[in-house]
Amino acid sequence: MAERGEGGGPVLSRALPERRRWAGAEGAIHAALLLAAGVAVLATVAIASVLFGNSLSFFTAVSPWTFYSGSVWSPDIRGLFGVLPLLVGTLVIAGGAALLGIPLGLGAALYLREYAPAWVRSIVKPVLEILAGVPTIVFGFFALVFVTPALQDWFGASYFNGLSAILVIAFLIVPLVSSLSEDALAAVPSDLREGALALGATRFEASVRVVLPAALSGIGASCLLAFSRAVGETMVVVIAAGVHTDLHADVLRPMTTLAGFVARRATGDLPTGSTLYQSLFAVGLTLFLMTLALNLVSDRLRARFREEYA
Amino acid sequence: MRPRSRQSRGVREVLFRIGAIACLVAALGVLAVLLGSILVTAAPMLRPELVTNFPSTTNPWRAGYWPAIVGTLYVVALTLLFALPLGVAAGIYLEEYAPPGRLTRLLQAGVANLAGVPSVVFGLLGLALFVRPPLALGPSVIAAALTLTLLVFPYVVVTTQESLRAVPRSLREASLAIGATRWQTIRGQVVPAAAPGLLTGSILAASRALGETAPLIVLGSVVLLTIPPWDLSAPFVVLSVQIYAFIGLPGAGFQAVAAAGMVVLLGMLLLFNGLAIVARNRLQRKR
């Protein structure tokens, strides 16, 4: 904007002296706000460089091939850094949780959006929000103290086991899936739904065959985000699934994930620069890249969904 | 596809309704069981000593959360002090100033990416950046607050943007038309109009900071403090990490202590959110 327009001309400037001061301050404020927004990029760069930097030193001691193809993770005792047990643990626990939590959240979203009377919505939405706000350590404790004993009785599971974590993380992601999927369903134009109903479809047919497919990319985005959230979940895994790093996929036995290992092993006493210290960052980098890929695909899907109904 | 009889379609309709309701009951049931079971476990430990005693690893009846409560309030207050101005400013820039283009897309992508990073990775960032050299602040209150600042920053930005977007354009145009500058318009009209939304965002940030555990464990929290962390550079401990330490101790007594700690934590969350709702209602009534 031109100086004159900003200051309001010479006469007005003299009449209102504080306006002239403002004209100069505007630029400074603009710059300060831009700087604050820059923190987002700065923090991202900081995360990437911290992870890559330390991983790079780690990969000079342990080759990436040994790291990603090794099936034994025993950093303390045997000095073996094969990340496969952690990777498999992550896929089993996050995959299992997503398999259970996504249909549940989707069902809740579909019901809330297409069926529920207003009073049901007015109760259920806040309850889901509360569930989303409960700290994950509470979920972890719940898994260990209330879910695990039942699994021990029924299936002979061990005290620390993957299934307990899977069940609880599934419920942890339900609010996320349901609120994001509901947004996706809400974005589908109501003409589609009404058209189907007018042609004689039942409400079930209208929601499952017309509305759901129309919202598919948006729902897919929410599912990927939920999976990414499950991949990064830490406390429930550390508390309920244990620290065992044997390579197996038996959910009744102890197992751990990438995030679980980082939280369990980073206890503050590791000397900076040791291979074990750096291995935390290599594991963290693997975790970061996994969630980043999931989030990016999810973003892409959501952008496409927005385009469809813009 | 073969057309189905009316009857079988009706049956499917009913089944679907039952299934959907079952989904809901399951979700709600879990919340009730979750909170109920924790309250029951915690019940014998809910007494004043719980919040006034220091932690103990030998006797659950003497174990308390006093240093952790001080640490939590301190860390969360500092986090908000850093994250709110920063996040609101970034939100204002992105919503009110940012010209469409590559830079804006980059900034927006940074915010979105940051929100999706697992919290434990923020712990690694804090460990390598704040706790160890270059900054070498140690596992201190300030290092914890800085780490949590980065963690809650994207949430503050996104909620700020959402609440600014909800302010009608006419308000901005009217203010600019009578001669206010851009910043005067934002400060005098847009931000006050968006205040209830900003408040919600700050409470969301506070709740996140309050409940986070994993990144703070990674920073190397000290769980057996005998003096509350009054100092910025003092070793920190917070409620969630202290609870985690108690969960790891053997015996039903310490499980009860852990559950009681969760009741305190959830109580604090409830208090925060309750205050926010009251404040938001007052703000909305004033306008």
- Structural class by sheet pairing and helices of chain B: mainly alpha
- Shape descriptor of chain B reads globular
> Biggest β-sheet of chain A: count, sense, barrel?
2 strands, antiparallel
CATH architecture of the largest domain in chain A: Orthogonal Bundle
Give the beta-strand count of chain A. 2
CATH architecture descriptor name of the largest domain in chain B: Orthogonal Bundle
Query: Helix proportion of residues of chain B, in percent?
Result: over 70%
Overall description:
The complex is a heterodimer of chains A (310) and B (287). In chain A, helix 5 (84-115) packs across helix 8 and helix 6 crosses helix 8. Chain A has helices at 3-7, 9-15, 17-61, 64-69, 84-115, 118-133, 136-155, 162-187, 190-198, 203-214, 216-232, 235-241, 258-265, 275-308, and strands at 73-74, 80-81. Chain A has 310 residues and is mainly alpha-helical. Chain A is built from 14 helices and two strands, in the order ααααββαααααααααα. Residues 1-8 of chain A have low confidence and may be disordered. Helix content of chain A is 79%, strand content 1%. The longest helix of chain A is centred in the N-terminal third of the chain and has 45 residues, at 17-61. In chain A, a hairpin with a 5-residue loop joins strand 1 (73-74) and strand 2. Chain A folds into two domains: 3-61; 69-308, MetI-like fold, CATH 1.10.3720. Chain B has two domains: 6-45; 51-286, MetI-like (MetI-like fold). Chain B starts with 5 loop residues before the first helix and ends with a helix. Chain B has eleven helices and no strands. Helix content of chain B is 75%, strand content 0%. The longest helix of chain B has 37 residues, at 6-42. Chain B has 287 residues and is mainly α. Chain B is globular and about 70 Å long. At the A-B interface, helix 3, helix 5, helix 6, helix 7 and helix 8 of A face helix 1, helix 3, helix 4, helix 5 and helix 6 of B.
